[in-house]
From TrEMBL:
Record's subcellular location: Cytoplasm
A molecular function GO annotation: nucleic acid binding
Catalytic reaction(s) noted: tRNA(Asn) + L-asparagine + ATP = L-asparaginyl-tRNA(Asn) + AMP + diphosphate + H(+)
Keyword Protein biosynthesis appears in the UniProt entry: yes
Protein name: Asparagine--tRNA ligase
Homology family: Belongs to the class-II aminoacyl-tRNA synthetase family.
UniProt keyword list: Aminoacyl-tRNA synthetase, ATP-binding, Cytoplasm, Ligase, Nucleotide-binding, Protein biosynthesis
Major site of localization recorded for this protein: cytoplasm
Residue ranges constituting the Aminoacyl-transfer RNA synthetases class-II family profile domain according to the UniProt record: 146-442
EC identifiers of the protein: 6.1.1.22
HAMAP family xrefs: Asn_tRNA_synth
Length: 452
RNA sequence: UCCUGAGUAGCUCAAUGGCAGAGCAUUCGGCUGUUAACCGAAGGGUUGUAGGUUCGAGUCCUACCUCAGGAGCCA
């Protein structure tokens, strides 16, 4: 069983973090963290410590420390918590450029031998790793991903905050099934009522946009889709701007500036993390700038040519939505995100404004991430006519009384307005170059897993 | 919901229908510059579950369970 935790620290050396060690060269400092790995070569030990900011290798020659310190470290188990004091020394042999000449160590909690830390440095299967997600998070790659995620979320909010947007978060609990109940999580809401977890705050932020002009929301959303792919979670985070007096072209400019800002921020401070994760930084550097814009018709023509040239297996039928292989082909033709606009209105959401030049098309845009990561942004200009919106609600057999408040927005000073939503996890998967969105969030919720 | 694949030691995987194996992890021993260290040794098994075929099943058959990848749908 586990030994007791002691928190007293007997050293007088100043505390430091591993990420800041370059500023402490030649100094004796104390780190608080965990034992990440331990190699031994007779009377010389090479413990690797981690503290959440990085890892550092310690050097422990038997002759240089007390018998107690040497024996304690020699027999220490992986992921035991500790404080370690030593002198920071530059060393060209070290991956980070620095090593720690250990002077003393204090163990807070020693991991028992009979229950060793389950995540080893060797490979593991997906099921095992997800079952131990709470411990998997400690590995350098997973920690790096979460640091990049935090920057992406901060940069996303920052872009709107510094451009005159007001954050107005919509409710998580919603009263009615807006677009069909099959993909909604349902729950009891007192007495005889039902409530549903939100699958998008869009309708609500249309209301706040008409109150405040430029708004955005940022929070978790839920979809009970029985999707089992590398791009799907049942709970994911979405950031959604909504702007009064904005039309489709302006919306595409907004999306372009938004993504460019996020990528720029990640490149500014996460090259080391991206290297640990294994992402090709050059591919991210190519993203900054203007993005190609294709109409649905142009994208269809591109797929048509690709099929005739034998580059894709199945032909794309004009009038149908693009499938996953179609999107992958289109995005592979560019090294930047691609914006595809003006899809046929027939398979798009009821609230999308028709194109005045071709009412069979909707004024909408999807942004496809490079490298086959699929749709990261979906947005549109919204219908601003009361009569048109009402008839669309009826055509889609949606309950009119549930949308009365939404129709009110077209009754009291309606204006053109537009917005989009970006799924954070897909953006993180693309920017980090991950195989699956389950690694982009601390605890992924998927079709088959809700533990831990 | 549909299609495909996989379940064997704590983990990752081997094993023509014929003795249950390896690497890593753990424990013990060795090694003063290791980078997933290395070398030697030990312990560790209800082969996903239930039935069936067979002299004999991890292996073949049936059903079920779990997981993974994909399709559809979506961010």
């Amino acid at each position: 069983m586990s030994e007791s935790v002691t928190t007293h620290v007997t050293t007088s050396a100043p505390l430091a973090t591993i990420a800041s060690l370059s500023a402490h060269e030649g100094q004796t400092i104390t780190l608080r963290g965990w034992l990440y790995n331990l190699r031994a070569s007779g009377k010389l030990l090479f413990p690797i410590f981690r503290d959440g900011t990085g890892t550092i290798q310690g050097i422990v020659p038997k002759a240089a420390v007390s018998e107690e310190v040497f024996e304690t470290l020699k027999n220490l188990t992986l992921e035991s918590s500790l404080t370690v004091t030593g002198k920071v020394r530059a060393d060209s042999r070290a991956p980070s450029g620095f090593e720690l000449d250990v002077e003393s160590i204090e163990v807070l909690q020693r991991v028992p031998e009979d229950t060793p830390f389950p995540i080893t440095l060797k490979e593991h299967g997906v099921d095992f790793l997800m079952e131990h997600r709470h411990l998997w998070l400690r590995t350098p790659r997973q920690s790096a991903i979460l640091r990049v995620r935090a920057t992406i979320m901060r940069a996303a909010a920052e872009y709107f905050d510094t451009n005159g947007f007001i954050r107005t978060d919509p409710p998580i609990l919603t009263p009615n099934a807006c677009e069909g109940t099959s993909e909604l999580f349902e729950m009891d809401y007192f007495d005889d009522d039902k409530a549903y977890l939100t699958q998008s705050g869009q309708l609500y932020i249309e209301a706040t946009a008409l109150a405040l002009g430029k708004v955005y929301s940022f929070g978790p959303t839920f979809r009970a889709e029985k999707s089992k792919t590398r791009r799907h979670l049942t709970e994911f985070w979405m950031i959604e701007p909504e702007v009064a007096f904005l039309e489709l072209d302006g919306l595409m400019n907004l999306a372009e500036g938004f993504i460019t800002h996020i990528v720029t921020r990640v490149l500014e401070s996460h090259c080391a993390d991206l290297k640990v994760i294994g992402k090709d930084i050059a591919k991210l550097e190519a993203v900054v700038g203007t993005f190609p814009r294709l109409s649905y018709d142009e994208a269809h023509a591109m797929l048509d040519e690709a099929y005739k040239a034998g580059k894709i297996e199945a032909p794309h039928k004009y009038g149908d939505d693009f499938g996953s292989p179609d999107e992958t082909y289109i995005s592979s033709q560019f090294d930047k995100p691609v914006m595809i606009h003006r899809y046929p209105a027939a398979f798009k959401a009821f609230y999308m404004q028709p194109d005045p030049f071709d009412p069979t098309k909707a004024l909408c845009v999807d942004v496809l991430a490079p490298e086959g990561y699929g749709e990261i942004i979906g947005g549109s200009q919204r219908i601003d006519s009361y009569d048109l919106l009402k008839s669309r609600i009826e055509e889609h057999h949606l309950p009119l009384d549930a949308f009365q408040w939404y129709l009110d927005l077209r009754k009291y000073g309606s204006v053109p307005h537009a917005g989009f939503g970006m799924g954070i996890e897909r953006a993180v998967a693309w920017i980090c170059g991950l195989d699956h969105v389950r690694e982009t969030i601390p605890f992924a919720r998927t079709l088959n897993r809700i533990y831990p």
